[in-house]
Amino acid sequence: NVGLSGGFGAVKLGRTWNAYDDVAGATDPVFDSVLSPLHIAPSYNSYNGNPDSGVYYSTPSFGGFSAAVATSFKDSAADNLRVTSFNVAYEGGPVYVALGHEQQATDSADTVKFTRLNASYDLGAAKILAGFGDVKDVAQDITIGVDVPLGGALVLSTGFTQVRPEVGDNGNSFAVGVNYALSKRTSVYTGFRKDND
Questions:
Q1: C-alpha angle 98/22/188, rounded to 5°?
Q2: Sign of torsion, CA 181 185 188 190?
Q3: Regarding beta strands 82-92 and 95-105, do their DSSP bridges make them parallel or antiparallel, or are they unpaired?
Q4: Whose CA is closest to 136, among 171, 98, 102, 108?
Q5: Band of pLDDT at residue 166, cut at 50, 70 and 90
Q6: Is the pTM of this model over 0.90?
Q7: Separation CA 177–CA 141 (nearest Å)
């Protein structure tokens, strides 16, 4: 992908992460990793975050408020798949709140609609994480979690997700993990996740 950014915001073209993906894992417990309890939620594990031939624009921040929109040209190799998404967010001081929405349209199936509302509050000694997701006519999910710094480079994170499908029984997942930052760009983590379908 290629992009350009400045006082006007940012524009990206190509196979780039879209506006819904900006929000999807932003408050995901256990470091938005494979150990996260959110992995059982369709609003997190079933969306298309970086379709081919995408166009993405994000605004600059206005007093902590920002927004982004993205779309893709129809992909003839994938049943004319077209992915369109947007987000709005506020980030100021200890508060983060963001809403993301994505629609996936094809020629042979109904449009699939994904929505996520995520929030966090940094208390200093811990960061509280929360999220709500909805895939229309498929399932809803709710997630709560907490990140606790244990030292300069060590963080403990834990979280719980419950999924309520339109058809079938509820599912839930619990996870806990620790992350050690080796540098600004490199870290190692370990943990445990238990899913109950």
A1: 110
A2: positive
A3: antiparallel
A4: 102
A5: very high
A6: yes
A7: 21
